[in-house]
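Notebook entry, cofactor series.
This is the third protein in the set we're modelling with a bound small molecule. For this one the ligand is 2-acetamido-2-deoxy-beta-D-glucopyranose. I'm keeping the input format identical across the series so the outputs can be compared line by line later. Sequence and SMILES below, as received.
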Amino acid sequence: MADLPPFAVAFIGVAAVIACFYLIWRVILLFAPGWYSAMIKNNAVSVDDFVGGPPDPVSAFKSVLLNWFNVGSRVAKKEGYPLKTAPSDKVPGLIVTSRNESAPQSWSDTTKPPVVVGTIRMGFGHHRIAYAATSWGLGGGGKLFGLVGGGKIDRETWFHDFLSIDSEEAQMIKDMDHMYSKGSRMASELGGVAEKFWGSLTKSGDENSLRVTYQFAEHMLPLINGLDKNSPIIATHCMVACAAVAAGFTNVINLVIDNHAQWFVVVPGALNLVQGPSNYHAFLKMGVPEKDLGLAGHWIPRDLVEGIPDACARRNTRRKAGKPLRIIIPVGGAGAQKSFIVNMVGALSGLVKEGVVQLFLNAGDHEHMKEAFVSALESNGMDYDTVVDMNGLQSFKDKMMTEEPAKNVTLFSYEDYFTAVATTDILCNIADVLACKPSELAFYPIPKLMIRRVGDHEAYSALRASELGDGTLEVREVASAIKYVNLFLTTNLLEVMNKSISNNNKIGLYDGCKNAMRLALERAEK
Ligand SMILES: *[C@@H]1O[C@H](CO)[C@@H](O)[C@H](O)[C@H]1NC(C)=O
Ligand SMILES: *[C@@H]1O[C@H](CO)[C@@H](O)[C@H](O)[C@H]1NC(C)=O
Ligand SMILES: *[C@@H]1O[C@H](CO)[C@@H](O)[C@H](O)[C@H]1NC(C)=O
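Returned structure with ligand:
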């Protein structure tokens, strides 16, 4: 060695290190299928059968590694936590579950098991869809759907949020959510290979993402095993659907989010309902069996669907009378897209001061968004009113049915999470345009200005809205957003959208949640 020139020594060193890593990688790949088999050996449901076969060694390793990040060496428990129920203090008629610390479980067998809408509070989307689904079960779901037996078969509707069951499993969900945000931040700071590897682990939406989601759900059984196994389950988070199937529930309906086919949003053993036709055939093409798939329509709350004719007529009358254009601008649960929205508010200040545009700004429960809105309003010299609770919101809405607001800008901000979510739903009845990113709101029956997306998968939701005729294409720049607002003011675009909404409604395109509830009830009677 001593005789070799330094560059040669360096070369041999590097080659040895590479050879070493390569050898370790080969050994890992040799063992990975075995680790994978050990990981899935007690699973109730085979994800591999569903996705068309077992993973190759690299996929097996990725799945094992991610599962280890998620659950470490914990052994999954099965026994369900006893639950208690209480009437919701937010939604009349709705029953909310939580953990009953004191008791062994027993459900009376004289009443029919309830319809359980299962969700996880992550962002606003999963909860918003869950409330939309419950709205079709309340007030006599059975009668609404003309089911045999009418009122007799009406069941209670329960809202079952995994995070409301105070437990180590709920804590695992929170920790995992936290870890992914931290991981993404770290990966993007490190950049390069680290960022690529993290992205390929977490963002691909491929078969492995479903393997890992399902494996995590195997650890969540105590959160759902306390329910009556005869209950129909409507899940608005795929992990809830996975846990329900793994626990042995046989009537599980999974409401698939967005409009982009990815493996981890469908669940083996559940009836997976999608919102639009391209998702339907994309999942068929991926290999999801026809019997596990259904095309339901969009996830919309009952009062918005039933209010479509009135809301359309009211918007139409406002347009004809030259009333100001009411734009509602909500911020998502993750509070992203701050700078776009703040700049947009500034860019609209001219039209607001002229009195041709009114803004309803929903900062939700994000203090930082409220501050950002306030500073944008103040620096642009825009006067505004504030609404801070449910009572204020209700009376504002009632007043807006017939009157104009005192100020041209109203800022909604809350400490309470539920009111933050509900505000956008409630204001859609009295607004002319909803300006939002292409999230679950992309399919709401109101003319929509689709603003810059946060996740790439959301692009397909904007396309869907645009082709349905009730929304614009996704606008990437504030200037294009303002251009659309001017088109709303000066062309017949809003009348065309209005007409699309009426037509879409006639053929049931907004009836997704209604159909899900009907199917859940019908299947439960079989
Ligand atoms: C908790 O369970 C016990 C025993 O089943 C029951 O008596 C009690 O009413 C439950 N608590 C609530 C609030 O439902
Ligand atoms: C609000 O709008 C009205 C017209 O509806 C307009 O006359 C007024 O100047 C606007 N007020 C402010 C403070 O921008
Ligand atoms: C808008 O919708 C309402 C209610 O469906 C309808 O009465 C009205 O004629 C529609 N306007 C246009 C221009 O389509």
